[in-house]
């Protein structure tokens, strides 16, 4: 078995920095200036480890340097290298060239986000592909639920395939609070028993009073002296509005004693705001996927979560019902943090309404 591997080294770089994406050299420079660290290589290495654990005889075929070789070796592989010299830093053109250079593989794994999935689609791969989630948003359906799931799916591939959607956002519009996902096409992916993340679905048509009721319940539960982290999303934004603050739709805000003390903050700024205080985090569920951490809210990092005393999850009953009993997912990039978050949490579904619901690490939800 020959498994191809491509890594977008800058994927996800803008997440913890609060930049809501990583496209463009200016954004990448700003992310680094804000203390961001590239993690796509680490996530690709985790996928390689899972692949080799299940299929030790697999050959990893990749391209030199940060676009694959480094992650393959970190994951325990002695990779076969294609004849390609990607640029430093790599570009979308390098990704497309790498896809074409790795045409003679059984499955092609790529680590990145929705923009990387678009580049793979544009290259016209002639083999099944599967995404290792490493971007900021990861709304497309062609990604496994986590790195280990991607490696396992590749190891178990026996020829059966299906189609999965590739969607992406205009990142500049996204930063300005306009969410307009666009379907770009479909990719052929392994039809494996390993769960794919599925495409993010839009907000339900729940009555505004439902969201307002959720916000009222959260505000009613707030305690003096506690610093509350409000994650991205229309439901969490309603909490800020209930406190009299407009807040941000797609960023992370912090409030204390009913007053905003941080708006659209990065991970570094968030750490400064919560250090030495009692901290609670309020996050919402990504529709259709079930993620509560690790998708679009990387500012709430493992370092931040280590300081969080209480986690509150928000979702309408319709959004929970659409999951069909599947658990909520945490994919923070740190297995120990994900494991600590596992268990049952109260999900606020309305005013004076909540239900218990299970959260599991994405790595544990690989097979289903």
Q: What do these coordinates show?
A:
The longest helix has 15 residues. With 368 residues, this protein is an alpha/beta fold. It is globular. The chain has a nine-stranded mixed β-sheet, with helices on both faces. Strands 3-2-1-4-5 form a five-stranded parallel β-sheet, with helices on both faces. It has two domains: 189 residues, Rossmann fold (3-Layer(aba) Sandwich); 158 residues, Rossmann fold (3-Layer(aba) Sandwich), CATH 3.40.50. Helix content is 31%, strand content 23%.
Summarize the entry for a quick read.
The chain is α/β, with parallel strands linked by helices. The chain has 13 helices and 16 strands. Helix content is 31%, strand content 23%.
Please outline the helices and strands:
Elements: E1 2-7, H1 25-33, H2 40-54, E2 59-62, H3 69-74, E3 80-81, H4 92-101, E4 107-112, H5 114-123, E5 129-133, H6 147-156, E6 161-168, H7 171-175, E7 182-190, H8 208-221, E8 227-230, H9 234-242, E9 253-256, E10 259-262, H10 267-274, E11 279-284, E12 291-293, H11 302-305, E13 310-314, H12 317-322, E14 328-330, H13 335-341, E15 343-350, E16 353-361
Parallel strand pairs: 1-2, 1-4, 2-3, 4-5, 8-11, 11-13, 12-14, 13-15, 14-16
Antiparallel strand pairs: 6-7, 8-9, 9-10, 15-16
Helix pairs in contact: 2-6, 4-5, 8-9
């Amino acid at each position: 078995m020959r498994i191809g591997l491509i890594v977008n080294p800058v994927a996800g770089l803008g997440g913890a920095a609060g930049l809501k994406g990583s496209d463009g050299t200016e954004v990448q420079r700003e992310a680094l200036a804000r203390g961001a660290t590239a993690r796509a290589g680490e996530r690709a290495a985790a996928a390689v480890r899972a692949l080799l654990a299940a299929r030790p005889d697999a050959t990893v075929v990749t391209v030199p340097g940060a676009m694959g070789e480094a992650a393959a070796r970190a994951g325990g592989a002695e990779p076969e290298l294609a004849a390609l010299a990607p640029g430093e830093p790599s570009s979308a053109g390098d990704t497309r060239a790498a896809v074409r250079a790795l045409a003679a593989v059984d499955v092609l794994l790529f680590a990145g986000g929705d923009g990387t999935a678009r580049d793979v689609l544009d290259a016209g791969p002639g083999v099944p592909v599967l995404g290792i989630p490493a971007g900021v948003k990861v709304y497309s359906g062609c990604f496994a639920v986590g790195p280990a799931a991607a490696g396992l799916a590749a190891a178990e591939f026996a020829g059966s395939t299906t189609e999965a959607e590739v969607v992406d956002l205009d990142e500049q519009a996204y930063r300005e609070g306009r969410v307009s996902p666009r379907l770009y096409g479909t990719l052929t992916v392994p039809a494996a028993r390993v769960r794919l993340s599925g495409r993010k679905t839009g907000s339900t048509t729940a009555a505004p009073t439902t969201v307002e009721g959720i916000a009222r319940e959260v505000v009613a539960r707030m305690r003096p002296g506690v610093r509350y982290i409000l994650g991205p999303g229309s439901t969490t934004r309603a909490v800020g509005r209930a406190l009299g603050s407009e807040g941000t739709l797609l960023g992370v805000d912090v409030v204390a004693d009913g007053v905003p003390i941080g708006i659209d903050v990065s991970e570094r700024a968030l750490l400064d705001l919560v250090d030495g205080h009692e901290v609670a985090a309020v996050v919402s569920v990504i529709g259709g996927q079930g993620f509560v951490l690790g998708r679009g809210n990387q500012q709430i990092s493992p370092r931040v979560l280590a300081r969080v005393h209480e986690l509150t999850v928000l979702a309408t009953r319709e959004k929970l019902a659409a999951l069909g009993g599947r658990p909520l997912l945490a994919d923070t990039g740190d297995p120990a943090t994900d494991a600590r978050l596992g268990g049952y949490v109260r999900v606020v579904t309305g005013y004076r309404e909540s239900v218990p619901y299970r959260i599991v690490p994405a790595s544990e939800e690989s097979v289903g």
